[in-house]
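Q: Hi! First time doing this. I have a protein sequence and I read that you can turn it into a structure. Is that right? Here it is:
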Amino acid sequence: MLFSLRLRWALLMASGWMMASAQPRCVVIDKETGTPLRDVKVYTDKGTQTVSDYQGRIYLDTVFHSATLSHVSYLSRVVKAEEMRDTLWMIPKENRLGEVVVWGTDRKNINSMVSDATRNLEAYAPPKGLVSFDFFEMFRKKPMSRKARKKNKELLENWDRIYGK
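A: Yes, that's right. Below is the predicted 3D structure, encoded as structure tokens:
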């Protein structure tokens, strides 16, 4: 009698643990930046609704076949229950304009502005200081001088001697 009571209790605890571990838990992230998304609404096909927390975590405690994820700034996404295991990503919505044509009635002012800008190019140019820094200049491929190539070659040949163990 006591053994069967302990066995029942153990089976009850094990089934509770299995049910708790079977609940879909995942994190919703932005596909471009990888940051967790808060306030993502999740609607299941069984009528359950939930919202992701500030760390992007979603907990669903019901059995379902598919769920719809939606957010104001992201495209909606439908996922199957098998996909909700670890991490789900969402793609940001992009609002882009095509070509923009501006029509006006008085072209005289536009023509005078263009002629003034082309006459006074120095006034519209950015100021030049004694030292200038261009971040992207570091990545531009420049031809090395013969002297620099020779020095690099010597350094590479003597690397083990200089920095060796």
